[in-house]
Amino acid sequence: MAHAYTPGLKVAAGTLIRRERRLPLKGEVLVSVGDEVKGDTIVARTELPGDVQPLNLAGLLGVAPQDLDGYLLKKPGDTIKKDEIIAETKGFFGLMKTRVKSPLNGTIESISTVTGQAILRNPPSPVEVDAYIDGKVVEIYKSEGVSVETYATFIQGIFGIGGETKGIIIPLVESPKDHLTVDMITPELKGNVVIGGSLVTIDVIRKAVEVGCIGIVTGGIWDYDLKELLGYDIGVAITGSEEKGITIIITEGFGEMPMADKTFRLLKKNEGKKASINGATQIRAGVMRPELIIPIVDPGNSKKSDKEIKTSKGLEIGSPIRIIREPYFGKIGKVTALPPELRVIETEAKVRILEAELENGKKVIVPRANVELIEE
Questions:
Q1: Shortest CA distance to 160 belongs to which of 95, 252, 88, 82?
Q2: What share of the chain is helix, strand, coil (3-state, %, to 5)?
């Protein structure tokens, strides 16, 4: 039988995780290989150049551009403060001078005696990159960043919004079928990641933001609640840059969808532990998944190498899968057959298919491209 590989969601009680932490442009790396770091340890920093602002010096002074040099009090490269005089005319007997003041704090980038324009630059913006996860620095990228490694419980979701954040895991429900409700969200949850079961609604999300929750992980969300939260429909794009005051990870799909038992048990088992979460998702393409990482404080496990991590064998009979297209979107099951021949589907395309048994016992036939492997 031909080997079939379908990338899928990983849910692992323990696996070696490595994350690259890079600056947007060259800067300074602050740690060394072998250093133990916390998730909020700053590992690299740089400065982004400030925005530029043009200033018509010649026009404001009322002089010819080629004569500007005789009126300048500041030169290119000089630091300036807001309202500091950059240039002035000599006036009449020292009186009635025309002065041009700086509109910002920053530096003078350039002054042209051809156009009469001065280019002012705002102060640079500091940019810092933290380690994101508790672990060890295993590689340095000179002037760019580092790679951090840790042995951890690792859970991927099917969809998420919001960027990287860190907090303590607090399960709020007893069953993966339970809903998160508004009354469960209390001020004591500030700074924590709350775990739900089958559904989170817009009202719960708003209450969580109000009390200062930094993350929600649950099985499902209604698409109309998501649209109301964001103010727009999600298209083919990368999520993660939304600034809604919270990071949300959906583990199963849209609608009321109980969290997978294994995922729920792992999260319950890790109650009270620190997690690093990221809602960034590549829609449809599947190249980026939201994630939850819980470092395992165990010196023995932390010495595991990449070679000790099982690699995916792809789809096999008995493989756990999740269907990612209608009409069975979000359903979980296991592979019962992998016919090698191509089949004609409703769209009249010839594709490879598989037969799967869903959790309710129903057997369905779906294109292999419409499923993802749930990796153990």
A1: 252
A2: 15, 40, 45
Distance separating the N- and C-terminal Cα atoms of the chain: 22
Pair of tokens at residue 103: 């509109």
Q: Which residues of 34-60 are buried (b: 16+ CB within 10 A; e: fewer)?
A: ebebebebebbebeeebeeeebebbeb
Three-state DSSP at 108 gives strand
Class at the top of the CATH hierarchy for domain 158-289: alpha beta
* Spatial distance between the Cα atoms of 347 and 31, rounded to a whole number of angstroms: 55
Q: What is the pTM assigned to this prediction?
A: 0.77
Grouped pLDDT means (10 residues each) for the chain, 376 residues: 52 94 96 96 96 95 92 94 93 75 95 95 95 97 96 94 97 96 97 97 97 97 93 78 94 89 94 97 74 81 43 75 80 89 82 90 90 74
Q: Tokens at residue 252, please?
A: 């199963």
| 8 A C-beta contact, residue 116 and residue 68 | yes
**Which one, of 62, 84, 87, 76, lies nearest residue 112 by Cα?**
76
79-80 sheet: strands from edge to edge:
52-56, 117-121, 106-111, 79-80
Quote the distance between the C-alpha of residue 66 and its chain's center.
51
User: At residue 193, what are phi and psi to the nearest 5 degrees?
Assistant: -105, 115
- Could you tell me the two tokens for 55? 């200033």
The structural architecture, per CATH, of the domain 52-121 is Beta Barrel (2.40)
